[in-house]
Amino acid sequence: MTIRRAQSPPVFRFAPSPNGFLHLGHAASALINQALARRHGGRFLLRIEDIDRGRSREAFVDAIYEDLAWLGLGWEEPVLKQSDRIDAYVSAAGRLSELGLLYPCFASRAEINSAAMRMQSGLDPDGAVIYPGLHRDLPVDVIGQRIMAGEPFAMRLNMERAVREVRGEAGAELSYLETGQQHGARLVSVDPMRWGDVVLQRKDVPTSYHLAVVIDDAHQRITHVVRGQDLQPATAIHRMLQQLLGFAAPVYHHHRLVRDVLGRKLSKSDAATSLRSLREAGWSPGDVIEKLGLEGLQ
Ligand code: GLU
After folding, report:
1. Is the CB–ligand 1 distance for residue 294 below 6 Å?
2. Quick one: pLDDT at residue 262?
């Protein structure tokens, strides 16, 4: 891993969402982060990403603390919870709005899906339909009327405009530094256009994963974002938001995913690989580390 020589120590973070029990994949992320922080004399922070009020549960927050402590991890207090940071997200969204980069979208999931089908707008890297631009150019008076009528709306990023803003006249390339766990770093160029007009403020909460993660990584001065490979494509959006908001770019490491016997990514709904069921089945933290092949990291 490439560590910049800086005055202050590197800062790592593990940022789970409390909408289920942690599984082996989370254990891998948390253990790698903590081991790298230790190895490089850095700090290790835990962040609770609980903006999804419908799915987050306080019991899962407690379970995160319990499971990580059982694994032998320690983190700095106080732990930052994203639900306490809504004002910061709203103010950043306001800055993007002032740049003319956000617009309200009233469309329902069903309307979006059928328009996307009609217009063959394709899929984003997560396999969701790319927003077909339905409300990108709604007249101001229509927007006003719909808001006045109390219709719920999300705020979407006008991706084409945002990319133009970031790339400038010269069409500068957008990239980030991806490092290995042990060695070497490479510059990866990214194309946020693959995501289309992503939602930055949801209908039910005035932020989204992408906006909150970028603001908090900057707020907590995270120097190294270490997370699973499934989040690598999203780094394109995160780099662009960092540029738009004037934040420094962290270095990234996207680690291999832990898969089940069928080769599928682990999911929180699959109880069998949750750390607590493994613990109840008699596993020790050492067994988890061995199963993940992370003995060398400690
Ligand atoms: N909260 C996200 C998750 O649990 C991870 C965010 C990140 O590491 O960037 O999948």
Report:
1. no
2. 73
Amino acid at 104: P
pTM, to two decimals:
0.94
Tokens, residue 100: 């003319």
| Max Cα distance, the chain (Å) | 63
> Is 70 exceeded by the pLDDT of residue 140?
yes
Cα(58) to centroid(ligand 1), Å: 17
97 with 64: CB under 8 angstroms?
A: no
- Whether 20 lines ligand 1, by a CB cut-off of 6 Å, is no
Q: CB pairs under 8 A, 24+ apart, for 33-36?
A: 33/226, 34/73, 34/74, 35/294, 35/297, 35/298, 36/1, 36/10, 36/12, 36/181, 36/224, 36/226, 36/253
CA distance 286 to 270: 22
**What is the share, in percent, of the chain residues with pLDDT greater than 90?**
87
Ligand 1 site-directed mutation target among 11, 12, 13, 17, most atoms within 8 Å of CB: 17
231 Cβ closer than 6 Å to some ligand 1 atom: yes
Cα 100 to Cα 94, 165, 225, 251, distances in angstroms? 10, 10, 29, 29
Q: How many CA atoms within 13 Å lie on the side-chain side of 6? A: 13
Whether 228 has a pLDDT exceeding 90, the answer reads: yes
Query: Which of 55, 213, 241, 252 maximizes ligand 1 atoms within 8 Å of its Cβ, making it the mutation to test the pocket?
Result: 213
The Cβ of residue 4 has, within 10 Å, a number of other Cβ atoms equal to 9
Instruction: Extract long-range pairs of 282-286: CB within 8 Å, 24+ residues apart.
Output: 285/70, 285/71, 285/72
33 lines ligand 1 (CB under 6 A): no
Tokens read off for 287: 């067994």
**With a 6 A CB cut-off, is 266 part of the ligand 1 pocket?**
no
**Chain mean pLDDT for the chain:** 94
List domains and CATH numbers for the chain: 1-82+259-298 (3.40.50.620), 85-217 (3.90.800.10)
